[in-house]
Amino acid sequence: MMFRVWVAIALVCLPIGCGWGAEISLFDGETLFGWQATSDANWRVEQGEIRVDSGPAGWLMTTSEFADFELHIEFHAPVTTNSGVFVRTSLAPTDPTKDCYEVNIAPAENAFPMGSLVGRVKATAAEAGRNAPPAEAGSPASPASAGGDWHTFDITTQGSEIAVMLDSKRVASYTDPKPLRRGRIGLQFREGPVAFRNVRLRPLGLEPLLNGKDLAGWNTDRAGEGDFSVLPSGELQVKNGPGQLESTQSYGNFLLQLECQVNGDGLNSGVFFRCIPRDLMMGYESQIQNAYRNDDRAQPVDCGTGGFYRRHNARRIVADDLTWFTKT
What we know:
This protein is an all-beta fold. The protein has no helices and 23 strands. Strands 2, 4, 5, 7, 10, 11, 12 and 14 form an eight-stranded antiparallel beta sheet that branches. The chain is elongated.
């Protein structure tokens, strides 16, 4: 197997430009896996979109928290809808000036029109997105948001800096003197129907754990039969086994991202974290095992890639052997 590995420590502000992560799809287009509703609003998935149009006000929140990132999201709503995209938010935000950042979806007459950071800064070109072209001809309209066009937010959070682009135009930027360091991402239902799709996140501030030359920063005391080496192309190659390679540095809260290629059919590997130092394979294991049963990717073999070994199986095998895949 071959690996490329990066990590970012949560709650630490890293300089701009010190490593961009691979993009993560936060919405699989079929289910609300990875999301948590805070009210009984009728959040649902239809035609590859997250839709809501009735019920009590509230949010659909990610179950994970994020610190520094670029977030891309597309939304579709009538011009009268009041909704929003929340970043670095608590599960139940009460004040957009204290416990979250709210990027508003709202009419032009709103005190903080579309693209504004509510309670913090008003969008400087709030109507830019309203003039965007309609959805592609022939594409099914969203019944939940008929009457509006599809628009995009690209939201960047890095340290104390927050920036918002609406339909590829920069409309708001803000420097928080008391920045929120991390939190969930939330979709709001408040007034009027709204639909969301293509929710993607790219973590920022990742630093390489592999230098691409040698095993500096790694301990081989427990390598056992494993053959760990860095190839001329810069990847970490693992052969034979069993055995483990352990980082010399310890981490508390972090975001770890790696690329992996399994050079065989149904081989078994894994990534351990929060391990007992210098012990053998003692910690949480994120499994690497791409095999599945009965030609059904929902039936993983031996926990399955992405599962937590002996704790929680992967719900679906999405990676393939002999092909690079990304794990976060």
